[in-house]
Structures are given as C-alpha cells and as structure tokens.
Amino acid sequence: MKILSKEQIYEGDKLTAQRQNISSTELMERAGTQIFNWMHMRMQGAQVPIHVFCGIGNNGGDGLVLARHLVNHGYNVHTYVVNYSDKRSKDFLVNYDRIKQVTKEWPTLMACEEDFPTITPEAIIVDAVFGIGLNRPIADWVKKLFQHFRASKAFTLAIDIPSGLQTDSVPESENDVVWAGYTLSFQSPKLIFFLPETSKYSVQWEVLDIGIDLEYIYKLNTEAELIGKQEVLPIYKPRKRFSHKGSFGHALIVGGSYGKIGSVTLSSKAALVSGVGLVSAYVPKCGYVPLQVALPEAMVITDENEKFISNISFDITPSAIGVGIGIGTQDETLLAFENFLKENKAPLVVDADALNLLSKKTELLALLPKGTVLTPHPKELERLIGEWKDDFDKLNKTKAFSKKHEVIVVVKGANTITVFQDKYYVNTTGNPGLATAGTGDVLMGIIAGLITQGYEPLSASVFGVYLHGKAADIILEDFGYQSMIASYVIDAVAEAYIDLFKQPEQPQVSEAEQEES
Ligand SMILES: NC(=O)C1=CN([C@@H]2O[C@H](COP(=O)(O)OP(=O)(O)OC[C@H]3O[C@@H](n4cnc5c(N)ncnc54)[C@H](OP(=O)(O)O)[C@@H]3O)[C@@H](O)[C@H]2O)[C@H](O)CC1
Ligand SMILES: [K+]
C-alpha cells in the first residue's frame, strides 16, 4: 500500500472531486460517513457519551459530519468547536450549518481552559481538532485540551491523524499531541504510524476508503510503501517442476568466533529454509564440530585460525555471501574482511560486526558491490551514518548513505524499514517477540538465501524482512513474546511461505448490513 505525502493527499482530493464530478463538501460527507459507519457497526446504538471535538478546518468538518450522523441515529453525542482560529474552512462552515439543523444542542464553542468539559473514563473522545493541515506550533490552551483528553482515560478515536502530529516531523513534546487508541485515516496510512518516536500516538490504525480516484493512486510514485502480503506476492518466484538443488544456488555464510558459532548455525539454517540449494559456512576452526553436529545439511569450511577469522579464503563459487555475524572486530579479522572485499564479486549481505568493521574503516564502504544489503540494528546504524536528531532525520541520513554507497539499508526495528535510493519500504509483520538473541542472524540468513536463489537484492530484503516477521507472527500464539527464540522463527519460515497463498478471511459484516442484503 502506498504511503502518500500530505501534498499527494491534497492533490488526490482535488483530482477526485474533478474526475468524479463531486464537490469537496461531498468528499467530506463520504469521509465523515465512513467514520460514522465504522463506529455504528461497533456501537450498535450504545448510549455511551461521545464527545466530538472539532477544529475549524476540514478535519473539524469531518468531525461535524460524523456528529450529525450520530445525532440522527440517536447517540448520546456532545459536539465542541475548538476555536483555535477565526479562519474557518468552507466545508467546515457548510457542516456547521447542517448540524445546527438536526439538533437544538448546538456545538459548544471552546476558546480557553475554562471551557473544557468533564470527560468520564467510560466516554469516547473523537479527535477532529487538527488533521494533516497542522503547520505551526499549537496554542497552549489547545495543548492543555490534549492533556485533558489523556488525563480523562477515555477511549480516543482520532480522525485521519492524532491532532498535534504532522505527517513529516516528530513533535517537540508528547504533551503537544493527542494519544489515540485508534486512528481512522483517509486514503493512506501516515508514515508516523510506523516510526519508533511517533507510533505510540496511534496504538491501532485503519485506512478508510473514501473513493479517491484509483488511477491517480495507481500511477503515483510515493516515497514510502507499506509492505504486506499483497506487496510481496508479486516478488515470490514459483518453482519449476524440473528444478534441482543446483537451480537454487549456493549460499556462503561467513562469521563466528569462539563462543559465537551459534550465530552462523542460525544464519545457515535460515538460508536453507529460505530455499537455497546448498549452504556452506565459513568459520574459525573451533566452529567445525558444532556446526557439523547442529546442522548436517550445511558444509563447513574452516579458517586457519582456531578462535576467530583471520583469512577468508575458499574454493567454492557462492551465488551470494552473508558476512559478519559473531565475527568480532579484531584487527586480524578487519584485515581479512578488507582482503575479502577486494577479491569478492558475489552479492553480499553485511550484518553485525562486519557493519562495525565498516564503521571502523569507512574506506571499505567503497569496496562493497553495488546493491549490497546492510542489516544494522539502531546502534550499528548510528555508527554508520552518525547521530540523528529524530526518526525523520534518521531516515533522511540513511537515504543519503544508501545513495552515496549504492547499498540497500535494512533499518531494523518494530517496523523494519528497507531504504534504497529514494524509497522506504515499511514492513508490517513482526512483533516484540523478535527482540531476542539470534533473530538478526536469522534475518541475515533469509535475505542472503533469497539472493542466492536469484532474487534481486532489494526484493530479497523486502521479502526476507516480511517472511521473518510473518514467521514470528505465526508462532506468537504458541510461544508469546517472552518465550519466542530465534530457532523457532526459523522453524516457522515454512508456514510463512505457505501463508502467502492462504485465502484472506472474509471481512466482518455487521448484522445491520446482513439484514439489508
Ligand atoms: N482525502 C482526504 O484525506 C480528505 C481529508 N479530509 C480532511 O481534511 C483534513 C485536512 O484539512 P485542512 O483543512 O487542510 O487542515 P486541518 O483541518 O488539519 O487544519 C485546519 C487549519 O488550521 C490552520 N492551522 C494549522 N496549524 C495551526 C495551528 N497550530 N494553530 C492554528 N491554526 C492552525 C491551517 O490553516 P492556515 O491557513 O491558518 O494555515 C489549517 O488549514 C484531513 O486531515 C482530513 O481529516 C477531507 O475532509 C476529505 C478528504
Ligand atoms: K485529528
């Protein structure tokens, strides 16, 4: 799913109105009605107090449409206009008139703290104060209103985006923002739903379809894309009936040091379950027995050194190489890595300590083949690109780094983001159970394994991140967040592949809709 910028969203509204020959007021009616349908399906007329707080722009206008429908359906609704400016939008005014026609209880105008209503914890707050039009610091009393929402402990439903957030920046203080339990977003999810610093403001989100012109969306090139099953299915390469193990390449996993051989075992096994034909592991001598015992499917090549890698040399021709897990940052290993990079022609995935070696000697970056995949966790990323001010700065710096060195950077996190050239691929699978030893080794093995099978490095990264997260989601039911370990994730990769071809569940249909049909 494409993640549109604010400018692209406004453009989509305009084009839709033109091409469908509807007014912006009608588009707002669709938006507000969709929110109403969503609530009505869940609430079925329940008399819970609903407080709808509307700003004076189009986000507020959506709120007024919703409030009118709630009134018309007999809900216990209170509507407020948060009067932070005199410059009301045209469609806000149209809907301000319309709601006055359906109720004697006109919206309450609010202009200072004294106007705040009491909100009980069992009430529902609808936040339609600011949408994507927020463009400057917010008045103090409005910030206080947001804090009043939070202090009430009432369930908060944000329309389009939690008020106080902008689509392309991180707020200065968490007190300046509405903390929404749920956000119903129009047309496109917002990038801030997926970034570590801003995702907490919208615990859950959903996109509502308001009928934006499909051709416009289809042709649009967006900076960010959300990666789910629909996006990875076209990447998947079906197997031919007459294929054999030679058809799926030979992966080489280079890594390990004394006490850290397990990382290579995990990566090699992950490469195997991703579908490679052959896997070899290159480890220091001390890794020979453990690997042969733990993973009989793998072949093992040993370094001349007992405890760490000192000279990466082998006489096989791997289709792709994954390097770095458990390798350490010894000077001898750095030299071995440098010599390896000077000779190597195979596509590469670089992880863990090999990333730290790159940060230690940045000249090595020039030796990476084009399209090399780097898979840093936040600390490793910081060593590569330097400190960042906030999540947007981090993404911009990563993008610049990716362009400069012509590499793909997989920024690992709750929503792993693969960055390549001008684009962000935001993954949707995975869960906090993955915050455990060895899961990074598994991811590296899967990505290296996919490249080995002939996937382009970018596709392998996006698909690999998806499969890895999906495997973790599948085993969540059995192991929970606490007891999930990396080996179980490997075991579930098979199920993650199979899940690609499962039919989606039928959407939930409300009783009201069933009766109508
Ligand atoms: N396709 C869609 O997604 C649709 C979305 N809709 C809804 O429209 C909003 C965006 O509406 P907009 O009117 O552009 O903006 P807001 O409602 O967010 O803000 C209103 C105006 O407030 C001014 N502003 C901005 N920041 C501040 C501030 N800190 N203090 C005071 N005032 C501020 C600004 O106007 P200025 O001219 O004064 O700069 C804003 O324009 C979107 O989020 C959806 O909810 C449509 O209803 C349907 C289609
Ligand atoms: K809002």
Entry summary:
This protein is an alpha/beta fold. 40% of the residues lie in helices and 16% in strands. Bound molecules: ligand LZDS7PUF and potassium ion.
Task: Describe this protein with a few key phrases.
2 domains, UDP-N-acetylmuramoyl-L-alanine:D-glutamate ligase, alpha/beta, 40% helix, Rossmann fold, binds potassium ion, 517 residues, seven-stranded parallel beta sheet, eleven-stranded mixed beta sheet, 18 strands
Total number of strands:
18
Quaternary structure classification: single chain
CATH topology of the largest domain: UDP-N-acetylmuramoyl-L-alanine:D-glutamate ligase
Identify the strand order in the major beta sheet: 1-9-18-17-16-15-14-13-10-11-12
Which class best fits the helix and strand makeup? alpha/beta
Explain what you see.
Residues 9-218 form the YjeF N-terminal domain. This is Bifunctional NAD(P)H-hydrate repair enzyme. The structure is a single chain. The protein is of the alpha/beta class and 517 residues long. The chain is built from 17 helices and 18 strands. The protein has helices at 6-19, 24-43, 58-72, 90-102, 140-152, 214-219, 229-232, 262-274, 288-294, 331-343, 352-360, 378-385, 391-405, 439-452, 457-479, 486-499, 511-516; strands at 2-3, 50-54, 77-82, 108-110, 124-128, 155-159, 180-186, 202-208, 224-227, 250-254, 278-283, 299-302, 320-323, 348-350, 372-374, 407-411, 417-420, 423-427. β14, α11 and β15 (372-374) form a beta-alpha-beta unit. α15 packs across α16. The two termini are 30 Å apart. Bound molecules: ligand LZDS7PUF and potassium ion. Potassium ion binds at residues 59, 127-131, 158-161, 163.
